[in-house]
Amino acid sequence: MSVFAPFPLALGFILYGRAKGVMIGILGMVLSFIFASMIYRDLTLFGFYVGVFIFAFGISEIARRGISPVKGLVSFGLGFIILISASFYSVIKSENTSVEQFVLLQLEKNKGKLAEYKKMIEQSSDENSIEVLQLLDRPDLIAKSMIESLPSYFFIGVFLMLWFNMFLVLKSRRLLLSGQDYPYSEKNLLNFKVPFGYVIPLSLGLVLAVWGDKLGFENAELLGGIIIVCLGVFYFFQGFGVFSDLLNFLGIVGFFRTLIVMFVLFMDKGSYLIAAAGLFDNWFDFRKYFVKPKIED
């Protein structure tokens, strides 16, 4: 549930103002630092909370200033990713090392935790445990896997957190501040539509991912996969809007609707189906089929 952590703080900014919101946020930051350093002896929790605070403030400012949720979400998300990437690059440069060496160093520092994780896997009956154990004995392979996968996961994580929390904030703002004029609602996010021109870089990514090894470009397959995943998250948003309209058309509401949404999202490959629906919506415009015929008197 940590993906929804920015929501209550962002709502606090909107309902009670920036000053009180910042005070609560700083208090939470102090508490998370105390818990992380003294109890867990790991600052990951504190680092995550700092990110939550930044997300909450950004989302609240988009809502308070009346900025288009879609434009605000994309601009803020890309800005955050660029800032973090630039900070990471400056750290790498300052230590005069490579990304792979930096990751290997961090793995070496966390050797104790990896050993504990290895013991836990050894006691597991999971059918993939042998492969995981073999991987844990090869720090170089772990570093390679992390370098290849983390950029995509980071990109997806940022925009998923922003989208879901922006959706909740807009819905809550409409319900709690219904007397105030505001031009946007959660429907703006459900009507998210990726510009048709983005099909071109998506096609390029697909070509690199499938035939990259035959084109002679170094890391072509990796680059193609990153392009597909990063653009796929936006098509997921578009597909989720189509899926929501389908449920409206079928008259599915309430708790049963929530169950269906959660089942589809967490089923194996469910998110891929949603993203595929968003992609093909550019050609088929599925929403035009979700119109109930008028019944004449």
Structural summary, described in words:
It is a single chain. The protein is 77% helix and 0% strand. By secondary structure, it is mainly alpha-helical. It has a domain at 191-290. The chain is globular and about 65 Å long. The relative contact order is 0.08. The mean pLDDT is 87.
Compile the SSE list and pairings:
Elements: H1 6-16, H2 18-39, H3 44-64, H4 69-94, H5 99-109, H6 111-122, H7 129-136, H8 139-176, H9 187-190, H10 199-215, H11 220-249, H12 254-266, H13 270-284
Q: How would the global form be characterised?
A: globular
Question: What's the helix count?
Answer: 13
Which whole number gives the mean pLDDT? 87
Strand runs, count: 0
Roughly what percent helix? Answer: over 70%
The Cα radius of gyration reads: 22 Å
Distance between the termini: 49 Å
Structural class: mainly alpha
Note poorly predicted spans. Answer: none
Major sheet attributes: none
Taken in chain order, the helices and strands follow as HHHHHHHHHHHHH
- Sheet-strand content, in percent, reads under 5%
